[in-house]
């Protein structure tokens, strides 16, 4: 039996492969510092865990409505309306198991073979994977380090064609930590407004920012009906394993995503949605504490990276990644990342795990203690000699 042809076009996330290699080294007794995985090293806030436990005790253990519980969808709509300065209702919200299904479902619902999709490179690898899987045409646009890892807007304009069906934006970004400036979003909105395209705006890191609050393209005139906002609980509330995310989109697309949910998941787990209500409506102190801690680590770790020979690290404005330029070491990214793991026991990712324009960079997650982060810098310094 052979797998279908399109399975040869689906990709993966190499963070999980590096994690497996790092775990194998640990089994051999090596001490590994894990800076490869994009997962907050904080626990889920206790009041959220409590709400989940209580929901189990109260019997929220059955199927729920496919798009999510109405009160949860309303709470999400109120939150998104407030934080993005838009007016959406529960009817615009799809609750799904994580942020990823919003990518997958919205692309399945919108992309025909040959449609072009513009996306950031380096970028989250699942974008290109799903585009290729569906037979659409990937149109990567390089992110420019000197522009805080945003697109060059002239390049973006040049790549828009009458086949462009979707543009993927991510801000704050994985893997670069870049935040798209509001002025750039305004100019992009001007480019997109009169075109028949949808923007998939990946805002999973919307709450993890440092100096300037990120804006959403949805908040610009005429863009709400052209935008799918992807957000969720994995990063903001350190809930990666609960599997809960959502999309906010026009009602006609909600109906399509619902059909895909009925056909695949039926619904998102009921008790986790009760915990989600507690997360959105309860105290945000834990979120604030986590972001302040990330900021302290960011400052110290990036200063450490900048002191390494051949490294140049822009200060990330959001998310929890450092993305240093390592061209000055004279080594290829993948080869350097492999050497750093095998020779120093520091697990990080090659920039090329995020696309061809990631060559020359490494990605480090700062979701580890300050002490471990600084030890990682010391170990890499010894390797570089
Ligand atoms: C940019 C980006 N979008 C989406 C996701 C997926 O989030 P989830 O775990 O909620 O599916 C991630 C996770 O790493 C991410 O980095």
Summing up helix and strand content along with how strands pair, one would put the structural category as alpha/beta
What percentage of residues falls in helices of 4 or more residues? 40-55%
The oligomerization state is single chain
Radius of gyration: 21 Å
Beta strand %: 5-15%
Largest sheet: 8 strands, mixed
**Count of runs of 4 or more consecutive helical residues:** 12
Give the SSE string: HEHHEHEHEEHEHEEEHHHEHEEEH
Distance between the termini: 52 Å
Order of strands across the main sheet: 2-9-8-7-6-3-4-5
**Number of strand elements:** 13
Shape: globular
Q: Poorly predicted ranges (pLDDT <50, ≥5 residues)?
A: none
Please tell me the overall pLDDT: 97
Task: Name every ligand kind in the structure.
Answer: pyridoxal-5'-phosphate
Describe this structure in words.
By secondary structure, this protein is an alpha/beta fold. It is 40% helix and 14% strand. It is built from 12 helices and 13 strands. It has helices spanning 14-27, 46-57, 70-84, 100-110, 125-133, 153-159, 182-192, 251-264, 270-281, 285-306, 333-344, 370-384, and strands at residues 33-34, 93-96, 116-121, 137-144, 150-151, 164-170, 198-202, 227-232, 245-248, 321-322, 346-347, 349-350, 362-365. The chain has an 8-stranded mixed β-sheet, with helices on both faces. β4 (137-144) and β5 (150-151) form a beta hairpin. The protein is globular. The chain starts with 13 loop residues before the first helix and ends with a helix. The mean pLDDT is 97. The chain binds pyridoxal-5'-phosphate.
């Amino acid at each position: 039996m052979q797998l279908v042809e399109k399975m040869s076009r689906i990709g993966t996330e190499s963070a999980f492969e590096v994690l497996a290699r790092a775990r194998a080294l640990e089994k051999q007794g090596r001490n590994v510092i894990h800076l490869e995985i994009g997962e907050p090293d904080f626990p889920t806030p206790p009041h959220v865990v409590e709400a989940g436990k209580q929901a189990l005790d109260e019997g929220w253990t059955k199927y729920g409505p496919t798009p999510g519980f109405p009160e949860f969808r309303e709470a999400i709509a109120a939150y998104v309306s407030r934080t993005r300065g838009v007016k959406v209702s529960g009817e615009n919200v799809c609750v799904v198991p994580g942020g990823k299904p919003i990518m997958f479902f919205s692309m399945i619902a919108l992309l025909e073979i040959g449609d072009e999709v513009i996306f950031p490179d380096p970028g989250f690898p699942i974008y290109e994977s799903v585009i290729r899987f569906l037979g659409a045409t990937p149109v990567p646009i390089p992110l420019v380090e000197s522009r805080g890892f945003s697109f060059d807007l002239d390049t973006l304009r040049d790549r828009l064609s009458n086949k462009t069906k979707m543009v993927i934006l991510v801000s704050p970004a994985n893997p670069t930590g870049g935040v798209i400036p509001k002025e750039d979003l305004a100019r992009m909105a001007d480019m997109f407004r009169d075109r028949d395209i949808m923007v998939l705006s990946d805002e999973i890191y919307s709450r993890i920012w440092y100096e300037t609050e990120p804006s959403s393209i949805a908040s610009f005139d005429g863009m709400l009906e052209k935008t799918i906002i992807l957000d969720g609980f994995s990063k903001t509330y350190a809930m990666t394993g609960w599997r809960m995310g959502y999309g906010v989109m026009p009602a006609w697309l909600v109906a399509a995503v619902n059909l895909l949910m009925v056909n695949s998941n039926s619904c998102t787990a009921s008790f986790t949605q009760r915990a989600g209500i507690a997360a959105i409506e309860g105290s945000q102190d834990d979120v604030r504490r986590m972001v302040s801690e990330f900021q302290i680590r960011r400052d110290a770790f990036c200063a450490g990276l900048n002191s390494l020979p051949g490294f140049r690290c822009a200060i990330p404005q959001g998310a929890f990644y450092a993305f240093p330029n390592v061209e000055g070491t004279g080594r290829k990214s993948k080869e350097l990342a492999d050497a750093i793991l095998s020779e120093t026991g520091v697990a990080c990712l090659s920039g090329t795990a995020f696309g061809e324009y990631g060559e020359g960079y490494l990605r480090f997650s700062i979701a580890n203690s300050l002490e471990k982060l600084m030890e990682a810098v010391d170990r890499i310094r010894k390797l570089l000699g």
